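Late entry, evening session. Most of the bench is empty. Finally got around to the prediction I had been postponing all week. Sequence below, unchanged from the version circulated by S.P.
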Amino acid sequence: PGMVLLHPSGGTARSQTPYAQQLAAHGAVVIAIDAPFVRRGGTSILTFMSLDRREQIQLMQDLRRAVDVLIATGTVDPARIAFEGYS
């Protein structure tokens, strides 16, 4: 199985490491990504400007790419990929 993780607004992909390790210990291939607002150094997911729209579109593209990466490993069944996000 594969798993895509998205951190809560106060976290990062790295903050998901302990949980990702637990999932991996049970056989999952795990990828955690940073949301665009983290990459720009933001402390809030919402700017209440047009940036929000662009970042949400980018986030959806990033999540789709994460699934592509899991599939490309050749060890993940495409029918067994999950997403888990926090707020």
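Two things to note before I forget:
Residues 15 and 52 are 23 Å apart (CA to CA).
Helices lie at 17-25, 36-39, 50-72.
Will write this up properly tomorrow.
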